[in-house]
Design a protein that fits this description.
Blueprint (H helix, E strand, L loop, with lengths): L1 E3 L5 H10 L4 E3 L5 H10 L5 E5 L2 E10 L4 E8 L8 H15 L5 E3 L6 H9 L21 E3 L3
Parallel strand pairs: 5-6
Antiparallel strand pairs: 1-3, 2-7, 3-4, 4-5
């Protein structure tokens, strides 16, 4: 079942994030407080997939009033290749459309072969005409990558 994510899903979502090899979890942004702040700002667009009473997929999805963005798109390895990822993306994109958002973007690590293959398979376009930049405002917001 695909549905809107709430803060009550946090423990299940965080446990899923911890299981995904190479997944980057930020110390502040991905804490319960950080995710709760994100969900309050974007109450209808983030999604979870629940099977057998547990979270097996999730997407943090939000927008700035102009462009939507997908973050932390993941599906438990044991549940992949069943359409869950695509169904979650469609659900999130419909929620963005209801809020009159017309374009969606995401960032995928270049070494995330599984993720990049997924995005290409479901019709997303890799942008080669731009550079991505970021600037750290809070050095305490450390990203730790799962090594499993």
């Amino acid at each position: 079942m695909i549905r809107v994510m709430t803060i009550d899903d946090y423990d299940g979502v965080y446990a899923l994030w911890k299981k995904i090899k190479g997944f980057g979890i930020r110390s502040i942004d991905d804490s319960r407080e950080g995710v709760e702040r994100f969900l309050k700002r974007n109450p209808t667009t983030s999604v979870v997939a629940v099977e057998d009473g547990k979270v097996v997929g999730s997407i943090l999805c939000g927008h700035d009033g102009r462009r939507g963005c997908l973050y932390h798109v993941c599906v438990d390895e044991a549940y992949r290749r069943h359409g869950i990822g695509k169904d979650m993306v469609v659900y999130a994109m419909k929620a963005l459309q209801e809020e009159r958002i017309n374009k969606v973007s995401l960032i995928a690590f270049t070494q995330n072969d599984i993720g990049n293959a997924f995005w290409n398979t479901i019709g997303w376009t890799e942008r080669l005409d731009l550079n991505y930049y970021d600037f750290t405002l809070n050095e305490a917001n450390i990203t730790a990558f799962n090594e499993q």
